Amino acid sequence: MERLTWVMTILGVLVAAADGVMFHLQPNTQKCLREEIHKDVLVSGEYEIQESPGQKVDIQVTDSKGHHLYVKEEAENGKFIFNTEDNDVYEVCFISRVPPTQRGIQQEITIKTKHGVEAKTYEALGEAAKLKPLEIELKRLEDLSESIVQDFSYMRQREEEMRDTNESTNSRVLYLSLFSLCCLIGLATWQVLYLRKFFKAKKLIE
Where are the transmembrane segments (predicted)? Predict the structure, then answer.
C-alpha cells in the first residue's frame, strides 16, 4: 500500500508540472507565445507582469481564426482558463503601451500554462465529491491514462494522414515521371524524323 501511494505521488508530481516561461517585454512592442493544442483540452494559465509606473500591458489569448478566448487590458497578474474547440494553434500575446511623453523600460513577464490533466483542480473536485486523498490520486491517474490514450489516438490519426499524403504524392510523382518520359520519347522521335527529312532534302543521306 505504501509503495502504491509512493508511485501515485511521483506520478502526481509529474502530472502537476507546468510549462513556465519568463521573458522581457520591450516598451511599445508585442510578444506572442504560440502552441498547437488538441481538441477538447482544458487549458489554464497564470501570468505575472512586472509593475512599471505609467506603462500598461494588455494580454490577449486567441486562436488561429482570431477568436478572443481571453482579453484583459492593463493587466498586472491573473489567471485564464478555456477549453479548446478544435485542433488549432493558440496564441498568448502581451502588448506594451507607453505614453509618448514617457520613456519606457522593459518589463519582466512570467507565464505558466497547464494543459489537460494538469489544468484540472482535483483538490476542489475532491472536496465537492468528498473524496479521500487516495481516491483523488486514482481519479487523477484515470484522467492521465485517458489523456495518454487520446494522445496516441491523435498520433495514429496524424500518421494515417501523413501516410495517405505520401502515397498520394508518390502516385502523382510517378504519373508526372511517366508523362515526362512520354514527352521526351515523342520529342526525340520527332527530332530524329525531322533531321532525317532535313538531311534527305539536303541530299546528305539517301
Answer: 173-195
